[in-house]
Amino acid sequence: MTPSPLTTTSNHPQTRIRITMKGLLQGIGFRPFVYRLAQNLSLG
Questions:
Q1: Binning pLDDT at 50, 70 and 90, where does residue 32 land?
Q2: Fewer CB atoms near the end CB (10 Å): N or C, the chain?
């Protein structure tokens, strides 16, 4: 994949890249989110 330059307001061009990640990501931020949601709904 070839990076494509993006238009910017400065003299420094930006580069767009695509990142694909595979694997188990469950748990990153999930438990704190569910905890706060349960607290806000008076469930726990």
A1: confident
A2: N
Alpha carbon distance 40, 31 (integer Å):
14
Q: What pTM was computed for the model?
A: 0.35
Measured distance CA(44)–CA(42) in Å, rounded: 6
CA angle 12, 16, 29 (to 5 degrees): 115
In DSSP terms, 32 is beta-bridged to none
Which residue in 4, 25, 26 sits closest to 15, CA to CA? 4
Cα–Cα distance for residue pair 32/1, rounded to 1 Å? 36
